Amino acid sequence: MTATLLEITSSGKHKTLGVQGEGVSMSSMITIWLIVFVVLVIIEIITMGLTTIWFAGGALVATLAAAVHAPLWVQIVLFLVVSALLLFFTRPVAVKYFNKDRVRTNVESLIGQQAIVISEINNLQGNMAIGHVRYSTTGESKLENSEPFVTDFDDGFIAMAHNGDIVNSAELRDELIREGYEFKSGTDSEVICYMLRKEHYANGKSIIESIEAVSKKLVGSYALTILVNGELYGVRGPAGIKPLAIAKRGDDFIIASETVAFDVINAEFIRDVKPGEIIYFENNEIRSSMLELADSTPLAHCMFEYVYFARPDSTIDNVNVYQTRLNIGKQLYEQFPIDADVVIPVPDSSIPAAIGYSRASGITYGEGLIKNRYVGRTFIMPTQEERELAVRLKLNPIKEAIKGKKIVLIDDS
Q1: Residues in a beta bridge with 289
Q2: Model's pTM, two decimal places?
Q3: Which terminus of the chain has fewer CB atoms gathered within 10 Å of its CB, N or C?
């Protein structure tokens, strides 16, 4: 509404002197928008949750609009539009929140080249989390394929990180699509997540019963960490192809694919998760349930974990990876004894095997290839073209160290 100032003359006539602003003055609107902006910024600083910063940007633009005497409806439209644009274009990571029994869990997907943003980790709030360091074997390297994968579950969320490869994932995906499920990524992890949702919703099963039912349909390898409304589960496939282990630090339990993760944070290794085992935690104790397939599935540990994937300072199923690679080198010499001047590894993962060959043969161990530390693993790159280019960038020979010599070159892949 507006207030019109009139002057009444002695003849009964009147004339308009002026019109005052709509409802509240522009100076008042500037104050209101600034208060909104400050409150939103304070909330953002306190929560560090990336939930209000976009609206604070919208409030700031609305403040500027009020300063130039834009109508109130223009200010409101600018606030909404700018907030929406900031939300759409500047949100750097996918963040999901849920709250159950006062447990606030943050699930974030960060994508990068062997980089952990410590500031982002320090900003996360809650008492439970899962994470994933992904390489591309199924699905391209893009944000949509990063893990943990998150989707709705009951009144909260289910988040899942997966290590392995599901052979029949395409078939299972097609089946889910026919039933109306829409996929956002190209990974088999999303397939498993939707299958768990389906078993829970359609058949009214608990999370453990859902895992049991899904495991009977999966063909391939998997080790899973699953976060469901504040409850953490770990699952290892019945064949034990992919490793999974448990540790404890203080009152906190940790699940990881490699024991070296425990060493970094000073956690005490407890044991490996058994093939076909589901673990979860109640009253600060480890609870366990075995899949029905565990008894009938033959064990098939992945040899490539020992040869290539795992770090040499890890231990898998009570077998040390470094010692395994040393033994591989010794066995290699026993099968292929060669007279040479020097034993040279293709760095880095074949170094222990080369040392083992050198010790068994008595041939001098030496370096002949220098690795570019800024190039990642080449085997796990998605295409052959990328792998070949990366190898050329990755390794360069030391010509003076190899010229005119008989060489035993040890490579693991």
Answers
A1: 278
A2: 0.67
A3: N
